[in-house]
Design goal:
mainly alpha, single chain, two-stranded parallel ribbon, globular
Protein backbone atom coordinates (compact mmCIF):
# COMPACT_ATOMS: atom_id res chain seq x y z
CA UNK A 1 0.00 0.00 0.00
CA UNK A 2 3.02 2.30 0.35
CA UNK A 3 3.96 4.83 2.98
CA UNK A 4 1.23 6.25 5.19
CA UNK A 5 0.66 10.00 4.89
CA UNK A 6 1.87 11.73 8.04
CA UNK A 7 -0.42 14.76 7.52
CA UNK A 8 -4.14 14.16 8.05
CA UNK A 9 -5.13 17.73 8.95
CA UNK A 10 -5.03 20.94 6.93
CA UNK A 11 -2.65 23.81 7.71
CA UNK A 12 -4.90 26.49 9.18
CA UNK A 13 -4.01 30.11 8.58
CA UNK A 14 -5.68 33.23 9.94
CA UNK A 15 -4.22 35.78 7.56
CA UNK A 16 -5.90 37.17 4.46
CA UNK A 17 -5.00 35.63 1.14
CA UNK A 18 -1.98 37.43 -0.37
CA UNK A 19 -3.21 38.15 -3.88
CA UNK A 20 -5.35 41.21 -3.16
CA UNK A 21 -2.46 42.90 -1.37
CA UNK A 22 0.04 42.03 -4.07
CA UNK A 23 -2.38 43.20 -6.78
CA UNK A 24 -2.71 46.60 -5.13
CA UNK A 25 1.06 46.97 -4.71
CA UNK A 26 1.81 45.85 -8.27
CA UNK A 27 -0.70 48.17 -9.91
CA UNK A 28 0.53 51.09 -7.79
CA UNK A 29 4.13 50.49 -8.86
CA UNK A 30 3.43 49.37 -12.43
CA UNK A 31 0.18 50.97 -13.65
CA UNK A 32 1.13 49.89 -17.18
CA UNK A 33 0.02 46.37 -16.20
CA UNK A 34 -3.54 47.56 -16.76
CA UNK A 35 -2.90 47.57 -20.51
CA UNK A 36 -3.02 43.76 -20.38
CA UNK A 37 -6.59 43.74 -19.08
CA UNK A 38 -8.78 42.64 -21.95
CA UNK A 39 -8.80 39.81 -24.49
CA UNK A 40 -6.40 37.64 -26.45
CA UNK A 41 -7.35 38.10 -30.14
CA UNK A 42 -5.89 34.69 -31.07
CA UNK A 43 -7.55 32.79 -28.24
CA UNK A 44 -10.84 32.09 -30.07
CA UNK A 45 -9.02 30.60 -33.03
CA UNK A 46 -6.73 28.50 -30.85
CA UNK A 47 -9.69 27.02 -28.98
CA UNK A 48 -11.65 26.45 -32.18
CA UNK A 49 -8.69 24.57 -33.66
CA UNK A 50 -8.69 22.17 -30.69
CA UNK A 51 -12.45 21.62 -31.02
CA UNK A 52 -12.12 20.99 -34.76
CA UNK A 53 -9.28 18.51 -34.26
CA UNK A 54 -11.38 16.47 -31.84
CA UNK A 55 -14.32 16.46 -34.25
CA UNK A 56 -11.88 15.30 -36.93
CA UNK A 57 -10.62 12.53 -34.64
CA UNK A 58 -14.22 11.35 -34.14
CA UNK A 59 -14.74 11.27 -37.91
CA UNK A 60 -11.59 9.17 -38.34
CA UNK A 61 -12.72 6.73 -35.62
CA UNK A 62 -16.15 6.46 -37.25
CA UNK A 63 -14.77 6.15 -40.78
CA UNK A 64 -12.18 3.47 -40.02
CA UNK A 65 -14.19 1.30 -37.66
CA UNK A 66 -12.61 -1.92 -38.92
CA UNK A 67 -9.04 -0.61 -38.61
CA UNK A 68 -8.94 1.42 -35.40
CA UNK A 69 -9.20 -1.08 -32.55
CA UNK A 70 -9.89 -0.37 -28.87
CA UNK A 71 -6.21 -0.34 -27.84
CA UNK A 72 -5.56 2.38 -30.41
CA UNK A 73 -8.57 4.33 -29.17
CA UNK A 74 -7.23 4.15 -25.60
CA UNK A 75 -3.78 5.30 -26.68
CA UNK A 76 -5.22 8.12 -28.77
CA UNK A 77 -7.57 9.16 -25.96
CA UNK A 78 -4.70 9.40 -23.46
CA UNK A 79 -2.05 11.13 -25.54
CA UNK A 80 -3.80 12.98 -28.37
CA UNK A 81 -7.36 13.50 -27.21
CA UNK A 82 -6.32 13.83 -23.59
CA UNK A 83 -3.89 16.62 -24.39
CA UNK A 84 -6.53 18.49 -26.37
CA UNK A 85 -9.38 17.98 -23.92
CA UNK A 86 -7.30 18.96 -20.92
CA UNK A 87 -6.23 22.06 -22.80
CA UNK A 88 -9.90 22.80 -23.48
CA UNK A 89 -10.73 22.56 -19.78
CA UNK A 90 -8.07 25.21 -19.22
CA UNK A 91 -9.53 27.28 -22.03
CA UNK A 92 -12.87 27.11 -20.22
CA UNK A 93 -11.01 28.34 -17.14
CA UNK A 94 -9.80 31.36 -19.12
CA UNK A 95 -13.26 31.95 -20.59
CA UNK A 96 -14.76 31.98 -17.09
CA UNK A 97 -12.85 35.24 -16.56
CA UNK A 98 -14.42 36.70 -19.75
CA UNK A 99 -11.08 36.90 -21.57
CA UNK A 100 -12.49 35.57 -24.87
CA UNK A 101 -14.77 38.54 -25.68
CA UNK A 102 -14.21 40.95 -22.80
CA UNK A 103 -16.10 41.85 -19.65
CA UNK A 104 -18.94 43.67 -21.43
CA UNK A 105 -19.90 40.69 -23.63
CA UNK A 106 -20.65 38.18 -20.89
CA UNK A 107 -23.17 36.13 -22.91
CA UNK A 108 -20.75 35.71 -25.81
CA UNK A 109 -18.20 34.39 -23.32
CA UNK A 110 -20.74 31.90 -21.92
CA UNK A 111 -21.64 30.65 -25.42
CA UNK A 112 -18.00 30.32 -26.36
CA UNK A 113 -17.41 28.33 -23.18
CA UNK A 114 -20.12 25.92 -24.33
CA UNK A 115 -18.35 25.64 -27.71
CA UNK A 116 -15.06 24.78 -26.01
CA UNK A 117 -16.98 22.31 -23.83
CA UNK A 118 -18.31 20.20 -26.71
CA UNK A 119 -15.40 17.70 -27.11
CA UNK A 120 -15.38 17.01 -23.35
CA UNK A 121 -18.48 14.86 -23.69
CA UNK A 122 -20.33 16.26 -20.66
CA UNK A 123 -21.49 19.82 -19.82
CA UNK A 124 -19.34 21.72 -17.32
CA UNK A 125 -18.43 25.21 -18.55
CA UNK A 126 -21.30 27.11 -16.89
CA UNK A 127 -21.08 25.30 -13.55
CA UNK A 128 -17.31 25.71 -13.57
CA UNK A 129 -17.68 29.46 -14.01
CA UNK A 130 -20.01 29.76 -11.01
CA UNK A 131 -17.75 27.80 -8.69
CA UNK A 132 -14.41 29.05 -9.97
CA UNK A 133 -15.16 32.69 -9.22
CA UNK A 134 -15.74 31.68 -5.60
CA UNK A 135 -12.37 29.93 -5.59
CA UNK A 136 -10.80 33.32 -6.33
CA UNK A 137 -13.02 35.30 -3.99
CA UNK A 138 -12.71 32.89 -1.06
CA UNK A 139 -9.33 31.26 -1.62
CA UNK A 140 -8.83 28.41 0.89
CA UNK A 141 -11.91 29.38 2.93
CA UNK A 142 -13.36 26.32 4.65
CA UNK A 143 -16.73 25.22 3.29
CA UNK A 144 -16.66 27.72 0.43
CA UNK A 145 -13.63 27.20 -1.80
CA UNK A 146 -14.63 24.19 -3.96
CA UNK A 147 -10.99 23.52 -4.82
CA UNK A 148 -10.25 22.38 -1.26
CA UNK A 149 -10.45 18.62 -0.67
CA UNK A 150 -13.02 17.52 1.88
CA UNK A 151 -12.02 16.20 5.31
CA UNK A 152 -13.08 12.75 4.16
CA UNK A 153 -10.68 12.88 1.19
CA UNK A 154 -7.85 14.01 3.47
CA UNK A 155 -8.39 11.14 5.91
CA UNK A 156 -9.26 8.31 3.53
CA UNK A 157 -6.59 8.73 0.85
CA UNK A 158 -3.85 8.23 3.38
CA UNK A 159 -1.09 6.19 1.71
CA UNK A 160 0.77 5.93 -1.57
CA UNK A 161 -1.63 3.50 -3.26
CA UNK A 162 -4.70 5.44 -2.18
CA UNK A 163 -3.16 8.71 -3.39
CA UNK A 164 -2.74 7.10 -6.82
CA UNK A 165 -6.45 6.21 -6.77
CA UNK A 166 -7.29 9.75 -5.64
CA UNK A 167 -5.38 11.16 -8.60
CA UNK A 168 -7.11 8.78 -11.02
CA UNK A 169 -10.47 9.92 -9.65
CA UNK A 170 -9.73 13.64 -9.86
CA UNK A 171 -12.34 14.32 -12.57
CA UNK A 172 -15.03 12.80 -10.36
CA UNK A 173 -13.96 14.67 -7.22
CA UNK A 174 -13.83 17.96 -9.12
CA UNK A 175 -17.36 17.27 -10.34
CA UNK A 176 -18.94 15.97 -7.13
CA UNK A 177 -17.11 18.00 -4.44
CA UNK A 178 -18.73 21.39 -5.21
CA UNK A 179 -22.17 19.79 -5.20
CA UNK A 180 -21.54 18.53 -1.66
CA UNK A 181 -19.60 21.47 -0.21
CA UNK A 182 -21.47 24.34 -1.87
CA UNK A 183 -24.61 23.14 -3.71
CA UNK A 184 -26.18 25.62 -6.11
CA UNK A 185 -29.49 25.57 -7.95
CA UNK A 186 -28.92 25.18 -11.72
CA UNK A 187 -30.05 28.10 -13.84
CA UNK A 188 -31.07 28.54 -17.48
CA UNK A 189 -27.43 28.73 -18.61
CA UNK A 190 -26.72 25.29 -17.16
CA UNK A 191 -29.77 24.02 -19.05
CA UNK A 192 -28.50 25.65 -22.25
CA UNK A 193 -25.07 24.09 -21.68
CA UNK A 194 -26.71 20.67 -21.20
CA UNK A 195 -28.87 21.09 -24.31
CA UNK A 196 -25.98 22.07 -26.57
CA UNK A 197 -23.87 19.21 -25.23
CA UNK A 198 -26.66 16.67 -25.70
CA UNK A 199 -27.26 17.77 -29.30
CA UNK A 200 -23.53 17.59 -30.08
CA UNK A 201 -23.18 14.13 -28.51
CA UNK A 202 -26.17 12.83 -30.48
CA UNK A 203 -24.71 14.20 -33.73
CA UNK A 204 -21.33 12.58 -33.04
CA UNK A 205 -23.02 9.29 -32.10
CA UNK A 206 -25.19 9.35 -35.25
CA UNK A 207 -22.41 10.14 -37.73
CA UNK A 208 -19.36 8.63 -36.02
CA UNK A 209 -20.71 5.92 -33.76
CA UNK A 210 -20.67 5.21 -30.04
CA UNK A 211 -16.93 4.56 -30.06
CA UNK A 212 -16.31 8.21 -30.93
CA UNK A 213 -18.37 9.29 -27.90
CA UNK A 214 -16.41 6.91 -25.69
CA UNK A 215 -13.18 8.31 -27.15
CA UNK A 216 -14.20 11.87 -26.19
CA UNK A 217 -15.21 10.91 -22.66
CA UNK A 218 -12.02 8.87 -22.17
CA UNK A 219 -9.97 11.82 -23.44
CA UNK A 220 -11.45 13.93 -20.66
CA UNK A 221 -11.34 11.39 -17.83
CA UNK A 222 -7.84 10.06 -18.55
CA UNK A 223 -6.32 13.52 -19.02
CA UNK A 224 -7.58 14.76 -15.65
CA UNK A 225 -6.16 11.83 -13.69
CA UNK A 226 -2.62 10.44 -13.92
CA UNK A 227 -1.62 12.51 -16.93
CA UNK A 228 1.36 14.87 -17.22
CA UNK A 229 -0.94 17.84 -17.82
CA UNK A 230 -2.88 17.07 -14.63
CA UNK A 231 0.16 18.05 -12.58
CA UNK A 232 -1.23 21.58 -12.42
CA UNK A 233 -4.05 20.37 -10.14
CA UNK A 234 -1.38 19.70 -7.50
CA UNK A 235 1.17 22.38 -8.36
CA UNK A 236 -1.23 25.31 -8.05
CA UNK A 237 -2.17 25.19 -4.36
CA UNK A 238 -0.84 22.06 -2.65
CA UNK A 239 2.06 22.58 -0.28
CA UNK A 240 4.68 20.60 -2.15
CA UNK A 241 6.74 23.64 -1.15
CA UNK A 242 5.54 24.63 2.30
CA UNK A 243 3.75 27.71 3.52
CA UNK A 244 2.17 29.48 0.53
CA UNK A 245 -1.35 29.63 -0.91
CA UNK A 246 -0.42 29.54 -4.56
CA UNK A 247 2.52 28.37 -6.65
CA UNK A 248 3.49 28.97 -10.25
CA UNK A 249 5.01 26.53 -12.71
CA UNK A 250 7.52 27.83 -15.22
CA UNK A 251 8.18 25.24 -17.89
CA UNK A 252 7.40 24.04 -21.43
CA UNK A 253 3.94 22.67 -20.60
CA UNK A 254 2.65 26.23 -20.42
CA UNK A 255 2.74 26.32 -24.22
CA UNK A 256 -0.12 23.79 -24.46
CA UNK A 257 -2.01 24.68 -21.26
CA UNK A 258 -2.85 28.35 -21.90
CA UNK A 259 -0.13 29.36 -19.42
CA UNK A 260 -1.97 27.79 -16.51
CA UNK A 261 1.42 27.46 -14.81
CA UNK A 262 1.53 31.22 -14.22
CA UNK A 263 -0.87 30.68 -11.37
CA UNK A 264 0.36 33.26 -8.87
CA UNK A 265 0.23 35.83 -11.64
CA UNK A 266 -3.29 34.69 -12.55
CA UNK A 267 -4.61 35.02 -9.00
CA UNK A 268 -2.96 38.42 -8.70
CA UNK A 269 -4.51 39.72 -11.93
CA UNK A 270 -7.35 37.35 -12.88
CA UNK A 271 -8.65 39.50 -15.74
CA UNK A 272 -5.38 39.39 -17.64
CA UNK A 273 -5.73 36.82 -20.44
CA UNK A 274 -3.41 33.84 -20.22
CA UNK A 275 -1.27 34.94 -23.16
CA UNK A 276 -0.13 38.02 -21.20
CA UNK A 277 0.66 36.38 -17.85
CA UNK A 278 4.37 35.94 -18.73
CA UNK A 279 4.45 39.70 -19.41
CA UNK A 280 3.13 40.36 -15.90
CA UNK A 281 6.04 38.42 -14.44
CA UNK A 282 8.51 40.12 -16.78
CA UNK A 283 7.36 43.63 -15.85
CA UNK A 284 7.16 42.98 -12.10
CA UNK A 285 9.82 40.31 -11.47
CA UNK A 286 10.60 41.36 -7.90
CA UNK A 287 7.10 40.29 -6.85
CA UNK A 288 7.77 36.69 -7.95
CA UNK A 289 11.51 36.00 -8.02
CA UNK A 290 11.71 35.15 -4.32
CA UNK A 291 8.57 32.98 -4.25
CA UNK A 292 8.78 29.17 -4.56
CA UNK A 293 7.73 27.71 -7.90
CA UNK A 294 7.74 24.47 -9.88
CA UNK A 295 9.56 23.51 -13.07
CA UNK A 296 8.01 20.09 -13.78
CA UNK A 297 4.42 18.86 -13.57
CA UNK A 298 5.63 15.26 -13.64
CA UNK A 299 7.93 15.81 -10.67
CA UNK A 300 5.06 17.42 -8.78
CA UNK A 301 2.87 14.36 -9.36
CA UNK A 302 5.66 11.99 -8.35
CA UNK A 303 6.44 13.89 -5.18
CA UNK A 304 2.78 14.15 -4.22
CA UNK A 305 2.28 10.40 -4.59
CA UNK A 306 5.51 9.19 -3.01
CA UNK A 307 6.23 11.73 -0.26
CA UNK A 308 4.55 10.63 3.00
CA UNK A 309 4.53 14.24 4.23
CA UNK A 310 2.15 15.25 1.42
CA UNK A 311 -1.46 14.26 0.86
CA UNK A 312 -4.85 15.79 0.07
CA UNK A 313 -4.64 17.79 3.32
CA UNK A 314 -1.42 19.56 2.28
CA UNK A 315 -3.32 22.79 1.78
CA UNK A 316 -3.68 26.06 3.63
CA UNK A 317 -7.19 26.58 4.97
CA UNK A 318 -8.96 29.64 6.37
CA UNK A 319 -11.95 29.83 8.73
CA UNK A 320 -15.32 30.43 7.10
CA UNK A 321 -16.10 34.10 6.58
CA UNK A 322 -19.49 35.51 7.48
CA UNK A 323 -19.97 37.14 4.08
CA UNK A 324 -19.46 33.81 2.31
CA UNK A 325 -22.84 32.51 3.45
CA UNK A 326 -24.69 35.25 1.59
CA UNK A 327 -23.21 34.68 -1.85
Amino acid sequence: MGSTVSRSGFEWTYTDEPHKTRRKEMLAKYPELKKFFGIDPWFKWHVSLWVTLQIGACMIIGGFDDVITWPWILIAAYWFGGTINHSLTLAIHDISHNTAFGQSRWFANRLFGMWANLPLGAPMSISFKRYHIEHHRYLAVDGVDPDLPTHWEAKFFSNTALKVIWMLLQPFFYTIRPLIVRPKTPGYLELLNLTFQFIFDVIIWYFCGVRAIIYLVLSTVLSMGLHPMAGHFISEHYMILFGHDTYSYYGPMNSITFNVGYHMEHHDLPYVPSCSLPDVKAIAPEFYSSLPHHTSFTKVLWKFITDPAIGPAARLKRPTRNDAHHQ
